[in-house]
Amino acid sequence: PTHEVVWKKAKFFGDGEGYGDNNKEFVDIIYEKAVGEGIAKITINRPERRNAFRPQTIKELMRAFNDARDDSSVGVIILTGKGTKAFCSGGDQALRTQDGYADPNDVGRLNVLDLQVQIRRLPKPVIAMVAGYAVGGGHILHMVCDLTIAAENAIFGQTGPKVGSFDAGYGSSIMSRLVGPKKAREMWFMTRFYSAFEAEKMGLINTVVPLDDLEKETVKWCREILRNSPTAIRVLKAALNAVDDGHAGLQELGGDATLLFYGTEEGIEGRTAYMQRRPPDFSKFPRRP
Ligand code: S0N
Questions:
Q1: Any keyword rRNA processing (predicted)?
Q2: Residue 15 carries which DSSP code?
Q3: pTM of the prediction?
């Protein structure tokens, strides 16, 4: 197929009422699905703020990611920012208070941390499609994605120690895994910005493409992934995160093992015996080497 993709405002998969256009409720993001492709695209839509996020942005992102997870026609999710100047510039500094970022009720929130966990645990690949700045909390969002495809104008970096913040969670530990402990210290201590080519060399991203080709290339990667076994990809994502995510990582991977076991004759025998009020007979199942 050609790279041409037809994006349609996403119909929500579930949500009780069945399918419906819940995009009406979105103010800070755009949520689309590619017609007949298995690709969802979630776009942070605050270009006048370089796609900085506020608590509402995060709430909307979580809702869209949740839908993309539930929709079994979706196999890959793209996270991006509106326009070419920024993927995301982190938390909206105008709303920063003494306890997070102010929501409409003036309650401070750090709900981006919940979004980071959601992306890590989501059993489908999430691809960050980056044009322009991915800095601060926006840089962390691309790091928690499974893959990052950058345009030549992309710029990566942390600003925390300069603007009075830091991410001592995934923003530190995942970075150290990606670029190594020395380079991670450099990124955080110096708050330098890095070009797309430098980022590629550091192992921070997967590839760099001309800006005009960014979506075309990203869709190509999505299609390559979508040709492969969804179960294999699901288990691999869990496995690749398991050690770093500790008990939660093992739980995710363990859940996949349970999911697969339910489909086996051996697993079914246990449930059937219980339902038939008889002792289970596992004698025919091999104790494999
Ligand atoms: C991105 C930069 C480098 C772009 O520079 P450029 O192209 O020169 O544009 P500007 O003229 O600077 O910006 C255009 C307009 O956009 C506004 N704007 C840009 N970024 C933000 C922002 N983050 N918040 C609010 N407004 C922003 C500008 O003010 C400007 O507006 P006007 O036109 O009205 O003047 C440059 O903009 C830049 O350096 N931006 C700030 C980057 C930054 O420091 N981000 C915050 C870093 N900290 C975090 O993200 C917090 C980390 C985090 O999320 C977290 C981690 C762990 C635990 C919790 C949290 C949490 O806080 O949630």
A1: no
A2: S
A3: 0.94
